[in-house]
Design brief:
This protein is an alpha/beta fold and 492 residues long. The chain folds into 3 domains: 231 residues, 3-Layer(bba) Sandwich (FAD/NAD(P)-binding domain); 116 residues, FAD/NAD(P)-binding domain, CATH 3.50.50.60; 101 residues, Enolase-like, domain 1. Strands 1, 2, 3, 4, 5, 6 and 16 form a 7-stranded mixed β-sheet that branches. Strand 11 and strand 12 form a beta hairpin.
């Protein structure tokens, strides 16, 4: 989710520890059925359900639990660990590694003889322990809610029919919540590059890594690895990092990463990976210099070039389900596909691929289908964070988006503050934090807030509420601040 759910991965490295899988497979609590036939026929391996959810990531779990709470008979099908990408190969393990990277960097700065490499193995142990705990917890909460969990490959064989192995489930409604998977690097030698999923299986670190991609995942992994003492080259096809974020934040982050030793290669289109003498060579074409090729040598390469909806092999094409421009299932505002009984949400559709977005979609859909109610989440002010060093938090319109919406640049005003926090002054480092507000020039209403500081993700969550309620610059200026704090810079 990070941003994101991929419950269909079958790689051995991505599977949950054995103990977690054994607990996850515990027999579910049987509930009184609400399905049409009112029975579960097990002898001929045909079941009845009100809702079949394919995918046990954030959106699928949220919808399944909420629907069961409304009294629906729900079966959730998952072929890998419950929790999806967020729990197993995304948000949770990534943020834990980021914490470990920060501690490693602090130790190496305070104690000159302490390096980061020795800390990686300990971090992976801690990550795996937390992932296993969450796998068990997710499964227990599902069964306690009355959701029956089936393990195996699901295939939609009819508008109201799902097959799992040799069992058939008849359901009034089917939900596709299968998440997304890393996009592969489609160049000669692209299979030599690891994916973001693979990083969590590394038991030791290479001395150098070429990270390909300048979005969320590429930036986060480059930042994490560099703080563990790895020499990092970050190769980006575009002219800046985080192209969907405000340009001032993108530029400031590039300066911050460079100051921490990450070598940036912008406007660089990777066209070849090759291996020789124990190292990888990543070749790229610099934009604007046709016919010229440059290269980076590293012990490993990591492709972080985006994610693609995990909807292949489910039988949806034969059913006539339509897909969007980005490869996800096309849905209407009710998350219904072109087949009336089939719904989809989260990373399986085109849209915001973020864990809390999928969770909100799942709960709302369950309320609407089985509770006959439900207040739709506000997706106009979705806060988001990038857990790099320094971290980034953002909500609302960027300056460019606000100008486009307003029609004229003079209708938009910005306030930008750059400062060195007490944390960095204590450490004796000159790293700057950046706060930017995008305002309606006439009314002073805050249209967007973009922050770069390690406290930014926590601050931006509260700002999202303020923006939804129409906060103005004058409100910030007349609010008493917490001092000393980073957040007070927003109110001065």
């Amino acid at each position: 989710m990070t941003k994101r759910q991929t419950p269909l991965s079958t790689t051995p490295e991505a599977r949950a520890p054995r103990r977690a899988r054994e607990v996850s497979a515990a027999p579910p609590v049987q509930q009184v059925p609400r399905a049409r036939s009112g029975r579960t026929r097990r002898n001929d391996k045909v079941r009845e359900a009100d809702l079949v959810v394919i995918g046990g990531g954030s959106g699928g779990v949220a919808c399944a639990r909420r629907a069961a709470a409304h009294g629906a008979r729900v079966i959730l099908v998952e072929r890998d660990a419950i929790g999806g990408t967020c729990v197993n190969r995304g948000c949770v393990p990534k943020k834990m590694l980021s914490y470990g990277a920060s501690w490693s960097a602090i130790l190496s700065g305070c104690l000159s003889h302490t390096g980061g490499h020795e800390d990686w193995r300990d971090a992976i142990v801690r990550v795996n322990a937390e992932v296993a705990r969450l796998n068990v917890g997710y499964t227990q909460r599902l069964t306690e809610s009355g959701v029956e969990v089936l393990r195996g490959e699901a295939r939609v064989t009819g508008p109201e029919e799902v097959c799992v192995g040799d069992e058939t489930i008849h359901a009034r409604r089917i939900l596709i919540a299968t998440g997304a998977r890393p996009r592969t690097l489609d160049v000669p030698g692209g299979d030599l590059a690891a994916s973001s999923d693979d990083v969590f299986t590394w038991q030791s670190l290479p001395a150098s890594v070429a990270v390909i991609g300048g979005g969320y995942i590429g930036v986060e992994q480059a930042s994490i690895l560099s703080r563990y003492g790895v020499k990092v080259d970050l190769i980006v096809a575009g002219d800046r990092l985080l192209p969907h974020f405000d340009h001032d934040i993108s530029s400031s982050l590039a300066d911050a990463l460079s100051a921490r030793g990450v070598r940036l290669h912008l406007n660089a289109e990777v066209n070849l990976l090759s291996q020789a003498n124990g190292a990888l060579e990543v070749c790229y074409r610099p934009n604007g210099r046709p016919g010229q090729t440059e290269s980076v040598r590293a012990q490993a390469a990591l492709a972080a070039i985006g994610r693609i909806s995990n909807v292949d092999g489910l039988g949806l094409d034969a059913l006539g389900v339509a897909f969007g421009e980005r490869g996800g299932i096309r849905v209407d505002r009710q998350f219904r596909s072109s087949v009336r009984s089939v719904y989809a949400l989260g990373d399986a559709i085109d849209g915001l691929h973020l864990t809390p977005v999928a969770t909100a979609q799942g709960r709302w859909l369950a309320d609407r289908l089985f509770g006959r109610r439900g207040e739709r989440a506000d997706f106009d002010f979705v806060p988001t964070a990038v857990f790099c060093e320094p971290a980034i938090g953002s909500v609302g319109l960027t300056e460019a988006q606000a100008i486009e919406a307003a029609g004229k640049p003079e209708r938009i005003r910005t306030v930008v503050k750059r400062f060195v926090s007490l944390e960095h002054r204590f450490a004796g480092t000159p790293h700057q934090s950046v706060f930017k507000l995008v305002l309606n020039a006439r009314s002073g209403r805050v249209l967007g807030a973009h922050l770069m500081d390690n406290a930014a993700p926590e601050i931006v969550q509260t700002l999202a509420v303020a923006l939804r309620l129409g906060v103005r610059e004058s409100h910030l200026q007349t609010t008493v601040q917490v001092h000393p704090s980073v957040a007070e810079e927003l109110f001065g």
